[in-house]
Amino acid sequence: MKKRALAAVAIAAAMLMTGCSGGSGDAGGQPDADGGAGAASGAPEVTAVNVGVVPVADAAAAYIALDEGYFEEEGLEVKMEAMQNAAAIVPGVLNGQVQFGQGAISPIISAAEQGLPLVIAANAANVPEDVEQDPTALLVKAGSGIETPKDLEGKVVAVNALQAAIELVVSQTIANDGGDPSQVTYVAMPFADMAGALERGDIDAAGVIEPFRATGLDAGLVSIASPFAEALTPGQSHAVYFTSKQFVQEAPNTVAAFERAMQRAAEAASADPSLVRAVLVKYGNLPADVAEKINLPGYGTEVTLESVEKYIEVMEAQGFIALGSVNAADLFAR
Predict the structure, then answer these.
(1) Exposed/middle/buried for residue 46 (C-beta within 10 Å: 0-12, 13-18, 19+)
(2) Phi then psi dihedrals of residue 297, to 5 deg
(3) Model confidence over 147-201: pLDDT tens digits?
(4) Does the residue 167 lie in any domain?
(5) How many domains does the chain have?
(6) End position of a domain, from candidates 187, 211, 231
């Protein structure tokens, strides 16, 4: 069991409290080879839908779909609801406050282990193919003597939330380097507070994501690892849009329409990264100069079964879920 300065909340409570449907397809079909479902046809059963997002780069494609009219062309009237984190989005999806939510794959897996009826509806963001473009970083203070992830044994590492995606990938990165993540003390704090905590010596390292990677490096901090790229599979999904099983049953055409709009937006984001940077300034309140320098995730149109299986493998290895407790194929909208 990992040592923590703050006790982790039970996953079930946290999900009702970190960090993807497959191909186009019939919301009532079985996942295809890429994890998708066969395409539902017909007009959307529900046209007005709310989408809960954290307004960061992982959610950029949804804002592009809104601004470019892709949702409207699918017959959907979409309202984006900016939320603080998955802690707010998951219960919103379960109680119908929002029909779709955005987050890392790991909370969906944790929810599945606890029997919560969430499924993947569309892709949100991928791990970049190039490690140099990874939006995550493991930051330390210059001159700290910490040079590799293994050096964090016996140290204090800050993450934005315990038992969430950043802690997961940081732990796997340490393990990949030959270290023992159980010898790390994880503490939870907002990303915005981590640089100051490093400078004061309150923590030894910080697992961050953009824009805090870029601003931390600008402030003289040093990156010793790129956790997404080192723990997961480059080019595969790391963040998704999810919905409830009940909504899939009630409105399969709506779910299929949402996915088609998101696929178009992903293609647009991949072809023109300036669209992503523009929505981060417009909706994420990111300064334009910061938006220009941050690393962006990839924006794939599909979520493969392999990407979910990789997350499950890492979560099992790090003790986030019990071995064999979740089947990846069950997490796709059917």
Answers:
(1) middle
(2) -70, 175
(3) 999 999 999 999 998 989 999 999 999 999 999 999 999 999 999 999 999 999 9
(4) yes
(5) 2
(6) 231
